[in-house]
Amino acid sequence: MPHAPRALAILAMLAVGACASHSAKPDHVPAAAATIDWATAKPITVKLTDFDFTPNQLNFQAGQPVRLILANNGSDLHDFSAPGFFAAASFRQGGTVPAAGKIAVAQDKTVEIDLVPGAGQYPLDCTEFLHTILGMTGTIDVTAAPH
Ligand SMILES: [Cu+2]
Fold this sequence. Notes:
Layout (H helix, E strand, L loop, with lengths): L3 H20 L7 H4 L7 E8 L2 E3 L2 E5 L4 E7 L5 E4 L1 H5 L2 E2 L10 E4 L4 E7 L3 E6 L11 E7 L4
The structure holds copper (II) ion.
């Protein structure tokens, strides 16, 4: 196969060229995020009340898309504060993204967040004044993806 080395060299040049033009795109999206099938996102509803998260133990699998549905059934503003959990997650483009590691939910409102969690164990709480002391805390457990 006398032509093989030359063919490989051309292929290599093409690959480099494709890479360069790809990364130059201003709207570049990482391949992993672009290929997430959000239709498969598992819906999980968490109720925020005075002063509990229900459930207050959340279990996810890393890499598995989740639709987190936060429903405030309490009598005042509550938030779902989990900075470590959100920092390790990737979010759906154009969807809700937490600011400062938390999502505030007004009374009688529901907020949905589509995300892919990263492995780890994370504390959850509500940062409204005294709510944590009153018991508004929880834990988020994200197990590593099976191999
Ligand atoms: Cu609260």
